């Protein structure tokens, strides 16, 4: 629920700045490593936005993959691992972000 509440709070703050009358849609970019259940987030968003100008807004979720690479040999992986086959240390970039990419409003 905290992710949904954070999204709603930020959307409402932006809507207030723009003097919006209604929020119609929100596009969120989520990193796959957050392990968020999309159906659960959508439900919690609807609950958190109830009674606000964002109530009934369509929530669109886009997932991004992390970049996982060995610092020693440069091999790239599609799934998180603890250590590379060569024994090198793995670097993980991205995949843990939650960004509001677009808010559609009536002003």
What do these coordinates show?
The chain has 107 residues and is an alpha+beta fold. The chain has one domain (2-65, 94-106): hypothetical protein PF0899 fold (2-Layer Sandwich). Helices cover 26% and strands 34% of the residues. It contains two helices and six strands; from the N terminus they run H-E-H-E-E-E-E-E. It has helices spanning 2-17, 38-49, and strands at residues 22-31, 58-64, 67-70, 76-77, 90-93, 98-106. It has a three-stranded mixed beta sheet with strand order 2-1-6, with helices on one face. A three-stranded antiparallel beta sheet has the order 4-3-5, with no helix packed on it. The chain starts with a helix and ends with a strand. The mean pLDDT is 94.
List the keywords.
107 residues, alpha+beta, hypothetical protein PF0899 fold, three-stranded mixed beta sheet, three-stranded antiparallel beta sheet, 2 helices, 6 strands
Short description:
The chain is α+β, with helices and mostly antiparallel strands.
Q: What is the terminal separation in angstroms?
A: 28 Å
Query: How many strand units?
Result: 6
CATH-level-2 architecture: 2-Layer Sandwich
Shape: elongated
Largest sheet: 3 strands, mixed
Q: What does the oligomeric state look like here?
A: single chain
Helix coverage percent of residues? 25-40%
Give, in spatial order, the strands making up the sheet with the most strands.
2-1-6
Q: What is the count of helical runs?
A: 2
Helical/strand content category: alpha+beta
Mean pLDDT metric: 94
Residues in β-strands, percent: 25-35%
> What is the CATH class?
Alpha Beta
Number of domains: 1
Query: Can you tell me the residue ranges where pLDDT is under 50 for at least 5 consecutive residues?
Result: none
Give the ordered list of helices and strands.
HEHEEEEE
């Amino acid at each position: 629920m905290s992710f949904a509440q954070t999204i709603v709070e930020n959307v409402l703050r932006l809507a207030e700045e723009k003097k919006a009358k209604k929020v119609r849609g929100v596009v969120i970019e989520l990193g796959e490593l957050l392990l968020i259940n999309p159906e659960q987030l959508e439900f919690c968003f609807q609950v958190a936005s109830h009674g606000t100008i964002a109530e009934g807004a369509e929530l669109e979720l886009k997932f991004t993959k992390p970049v996982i690479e060995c610092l020693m040999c440069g091999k790239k992986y599609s799934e998180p691992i603890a250590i590379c086959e060569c024994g090198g240390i793995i670097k993980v970039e991205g995949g843990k972000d939650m960004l509001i990419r677009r808010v559609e409003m009536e002003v």
